[in-house]
Design brief:
The protein is built from two helices and no strands. By secondary structure, the chain is mainly α. It has two domains: 1-34; 38-97. The chain starts with a helix and ends with a helix.
Length: 97
């Protein structure tokens, strides 16, 4: 009789452990699923994608050439500013060594 009680007690403990494991498994399967975070793609400012306007030489005098040179210099500085903006964006958002 003692043997039966002892084996019943051991079986009861094993069943409790098994029941606790199954209960925790079932409870976690009912938990609401959290969707994965949405991937966000960052892009540089839109102003740096504007193409540089290259001025056209109009005229045939030395004065026209000097004004054309100033216009080219202005366009060159604007394009250099766009490149500097892209480099700044890249260093802020990407890990570049």
């Amino acid at each position: 009789m003692r043997y039966i009680r002892r084996s019943f007690k051991m079986l009861s403990r094993k069943m409790n452990v098994l029941l606790a494991m199954l209960l925790s498994l079932f409870l976690t399967s009912c938990a609401p699923r959290i969707p994965p975070p949405e991937l966000v793609t960052l892009f540089p400012p839109e102003s740096v994608f504007k193409p540089c306007d290259i001025p056209i030489l109009e005229g045939d005098t030395w004065g026209d050439i000097s004004s054309y040179s100033l216009a080219l210099r202005t366009v060159l500085s604007l394009c250099a500013n766009q490149v500097a903006t892209l480099i700044q964006w890249r260093t802020q958002h990407w890990l570049i060594e």
